[in-house]
Amino acid sequence: MSCNDEAWAVFWCSLLSPLLLEEIPYGKRERYFHQLSREERLLPNGRRRCLSVRTLRRKWRQLQKDGVPGLYRRRRSDRGKPRSRYADLLARAVELKNEQPRRSDQVINRILQKEFGRQVPRSKLYRHLRREGATRRKLGVSSEKVRCRWSRDEPGTLWVGDFEHGPLVMHQVPFDQDPPLGLDRLSQPLRGRGPLLRSRGPRHPRRLAAARLGQPRGQPRTLRRQRQDHANALKLACAQLNIKLLHRPPRDPAPGGLIERFFQTCQGQLEAEVRASNVLTLDQLNQVLAAWLQTAYHRQVHSQTGQTPHDRYSQDTRIVRQVDLGTVLSFFHQRMLRKVDEDSSDVRIDGLFFAVDPRLRGDRVIVQFDPFSKLGEVQLYSPSGIHLGLGRRYQREPRNHQQPQGQKSSAEPVTPHYLDAVRSDHEALHWLARKNPARVSFCARRMAGPPTPEALCGPKEQEERIPRARNGSSKIDAGDWRSGIHFLDSWNRCELSCGGLPPA
């Protein structure tokens, strides 16, 4: 049914409605038909003419029998079928297309020219092939990619982020850092958050991710395949905040159409003016971008939504769930392994010095810091993950570092454990000397020189315990003397274990 059929059905129903509602009795029906036939009417096709009584009777019978659908024009029985002139050619064309789906109209017409002596117009051929389901798409051999576009019905449920290179800016950076050549813009067309412009410094997406993650929990966000967006820190942060992270497929710009359209608007309205004017500083460019977002972009009616971004974002039906960014900022901190200087008791990060507790001098520590902060202080951890305190930024000048304080002597005396142990060992040696005067201490024996075998043991035990000299003499060499000393020491330990220490 077409729109034209509906217009004709409405026209006939308006004429025959008094009969349908029984406002006119059965006996006065013919009189009503003759009255309608004498009046000239404007037909749905734009013509003016009088309707015959026979036509009115036929339409009334169709309305009574089939209802409103009976007033539609009947479809032709041969509709969709080819005329007899092209029937054989089109049937053969369908066979050729099913045999080889990648045959074009030129190839098929060349075969038809050879077999039938004539061809089929290209439009008629493809129209019939499409009706018979004999095209590449309908036969399933087309590899054309299905394009998509991520969108949501409610504002705030999908956030899209991307990067764009902007104009050069003047910005003072340390000499050991790269010059400011890049401009990263956070695109939030539906939110009144300030801009994010930064220079190429530490490769760390902390502030970028923190701005992007200011969204309801559990809502997806899409990113282009950038190295920063594939960082493990960003994945952990999204998992912590219950956010689904999506990445745009490679070589498929359709899902990022929203953000690309925002870039085009920004380039045409703002960046063109910035590039044509004098070079701005980084702070000035941030101010200009913030002013343009609030006064121009957020107040302009969007062509698709019919609302301004500010009004759509401020709708009462929008669901907002707050999140704590403090729980995820630590994921984006940089960590570096450093050794505390033994002389200055500090660590160095990018040419900056941070004072460390003097007790950590010479130790290896892990320095954790936020590269986008002012770096006034850093966190210190041991390699095993134990927090060691803070490192305060300072200059290596006198009286800038805390000096170590010596341990103060305690008022109460300590227990002399070491002195008691030395005194007990000395008394034990004296007890052994009194018990066997012939035996002297090891120190006295060492000062007197190598002992004789008779002094170590009896004459009979000499041959059993002390080996003889290799040359057969009665004297022993240095190696045999060490064996004798070892024997004497073993004998003394045995005597101590059996006899015990002398009484105190």
Give the mean pLDDT.
76
Global structural class: alpha+beta
- Give the termini separation: 124 Å
Helicity level, as a percent range?
Answer: 25-40%
Number of strand elements: 11
Percent of residues in beta strands: 5-15%
Major sheet size, sense and barrel closure: 6 strands, antiparallel
Low-confidence runs (pLDDT<50, min 5 residues)? 174-218, 455-488, 490-504
Strand order of the largest sheet: 6-9-10-11-8-7
Descriptive overview:
There is one protein chain. With 504 residues, the chain is of the alpha+beta class. 39% of the residues lie in helices and 10% in strands. Helix 1 packs across helix 3 and helix 4 crosses helix 5.
Topology diagram in text:
Layout: H1 3-20, H2 29-37, E1 40-42, E2 48-50, H3 53-66, H4 87-99, H5 105-116, H6 122-131, H7 136-139, E3 159-161, H8 206-212, E4 221-223, H9 232-240, E5 245-247, H10 257-276, H11 282-297, H12 309-313, E6 334-339, E7 346-349, E8 352-355, E9 364-369, E10 377-381, E11 387-394, H13 417-435, H14 442-448, H15 453-456, H16 459-465, H17 478-499
Parallel strand pairs: 3-4, 4-5
Antiparallel strand pairs: 1-2, 6-9, 7-8, 8-11, 9-10, 10-11
Helix pairs in contact: 1-3, 4-5
Short description, anyone?
By secondary structure, the protein is α+β, with helices and mostly antiparallel strands.
Please describe the structure with a list of short key phrases separated by commas or semicolons:
single chain, 504 residues, alpha+beta, six-stranded antiparallel sheet, three-stranded parallel sheet, 17 helices, 39% helix, elongated, disordered C terminus
